[in-house]
Write a structure and sequence with these properties.
With 571 residues, the chain is mostly helical. It is 77% helix and 0% strand. The protein is built from 26 helices and no strands. It has helices at residues 20-38, 41-59, 85-93, 101-119, 123-136, 139-155, 159-176, 179-195, 199-215, 219-235, 239-256, 259-275, 279-292, 299-315, 319-336, 339-355, 359-376, 379-395, 399-416, 419-435, 439-455, 459-475, 479-495, 499-515, 519-534, 539-556. It is elongated, with a radius of gyration of 30 Å.
Length: 571
Amino acid sequence: MPSGAARKSGPPPDPPPPAAEVAYLFRHALLRDAAYQLQLPGDRARLHALAFALIEELAGGRAPANVERPNRPPNLIPHSTDPFAAELASHALASGTDDHPLKSVGLLYLRRGAQRADWQYRPAEAEPLWRALAEVLSGSERIDALRSAGAAAGKAGAIVRGIETLESAILLARESGDRRLEGMILGELGVIHSASGKSGLAETFFRRAIAVQRALKDANGEATSLSNLGSLLRRTGRTRDARSALTASRRIFLRLGSFERALVAQSHLASSHAIAGEFGRAERMYRQILRDAPASIEEGVKATWIGNLGTLYLETGRLEEATKALEEALVMQRRAGTRGMVGLALAALAELHRALGRVELVRAEFAEAIQLFREAGDRRSEGIALTNLGILHFTEGRFDLALPAFETALAIHWEVGNVRSAGRVISSLASLHSREGAGELALREFHEALAIHVRVEDRVWTATTLTERAAHYQGVGDLEAAGRDLSEAIVVLHALSDRAGEGRARCTLALIQARLRREAEARATWREGIKLLRTSTGQDELTRGRAGMIAACTEAGIAPLDAASGAFGKS
C-alpha cells in the first residue's frame, strides 16, 4: 500500500466481470460438451471421422509407418503430421467399431507418436501413448506396449508406476510363454531399479535378463543388458567388471550393425576411464564418439556426452571450454525435457561455477538440481548433489550446514549402493572433524575412506584423502606421517598427470622436509614442485606459496629454498 493511503473498511468489492472473450470461451466449452453428449453414438463416430479427415488433410496427408529394423530402434520417418499424432489417433480410434477402416490408422498414429516421443527422450509424453496403444492391442504386441509404457514411466520419474506396469507385463509374458519379451522386461526392471538407486536389485535383474537372452540367442537383447549392467557396475565402483561387460556389449552391437547403441556402450567405457582419473583417454573417446554420432542420435543422449566432455575440461582446468560445453549441454537437456537429465546438467554447471567462485549461482543450481532429482525419484543423483553441496558449505567454513548435507548424502549412498560416493563423503567428514578438533574420529574416517577409494579404484580421491590426512598430521605436529602421506599422494597425482596437484603436494612436502631440517631434500623437492606449478597455475598462487616457504625456512633456521636458483616464480 502506498505511504499515507487510507485503508477502507467493509467487505471487498465484487471482482470485475470476466472479459468477454474468456466468458465466451468458457460457455462455448460447456455448450460444446453438452452438444457432444446429445449426439447418438453413430453421429459421434462420424464427427470424429470428419475431424480426423480434416486435421490429417490440413497437416499434410497420411503419414507412413515407421520402418521396424532388426536389432535397432525403428527408423523414424519424419512427417508433417507428427505434432498432431496423438490427436489424430484419438479421433481415428473413436470413429467407429473395431473393424472400422480408421482403427488401423489410429494405431499407426499412436505408435508413431509414442516412438517419436521415445526417440526425442520425452518419456512423460510417450507413456500415455504407449498405454493407449496397449489398451487396443492384444497378445505380444500388447505386452510390448506395456513394457514401453513402464520404461517411459521410469524415465519420467514415476518409478512406482513404472515398476508396477513392468511387473504386470512380465506376468503376461510368462503366461503367454514369450521368453524374448520376458528377457526384455527383466532388463527394463533392471534399468528402473538402477535409476531409483537400488543397485543390488538392478544387478540381479540385469543378470537374469542376460541369462534368458543368451539361452534364446537374442544377441541384441544380450548386448543391451550387458551395456546397462556395465554402466551400473561402473557407477558402483567395479571398474574391471564394468569394462568387461561394456566391451562385450560394444562388440555385439557392432557385429549386429547397431552403430548408435555401440556408441552408447563406448560412452560408458569413456566414463569408466574418467572415473579412474584417466582423463586424457576419456577425452579422446568422447571426442571420437561425438565425431561419429549420427544426426539421428537422441538429443538428450548427445547432450549427456557433451556434458561429460565439459566435466573433463573442468577436471583438467580448462574452464573456458568447460563453460561452453556445460552450458550447451544444459540448453539441450532442457529442450529434451527429462527432469533427471536436466538435474545432472545443472549439477555439472554448479561444479563449474564453484570453481569460478560464483557461489550464489552454485547454491541456486544445486537447489534446483536436487529438487529435480527428488521429483524424478533419482536417489543416486540426489546423494551426489548433496555431497557436492556439502563440500561447498565446507569450503565456505559453514560446518553447521556441511555436516547435515554430508550425513544425508552418506545415508543415501549406502541406501543405493553407491560405494564410490560414500567413500568421498567419509573423506569429507574426516576433513571436517579434523578442523573441529575430533582427531581420533577424523583418523578413523580417513582410514575408512582410503580403503574404499583403493577398493573402487578411485585414484582422484585417493590423492585428495592422502593430502587431507597429511594436513591433519601437520596440524597435530606429526610431520613424519604427513610426509609419508604426501609422498604417496605425489605418486598417484603423477600417474593422473595432475601437474597442479602434484606441484602443490611437492611444495608442501618440501616445507615439511625443511621443518625436519632435511635441507637438501627440501630444495630438490621444492624445485620439482615449482617447475610443475609454473606451467599449471597463476602468479598469485606462486606468490602465496613463496610466503609460506619463507616462513617455514625461517622457522627451520635455513636459507630460502629458492635462494640458490633465483627468485621464486621467475623463469
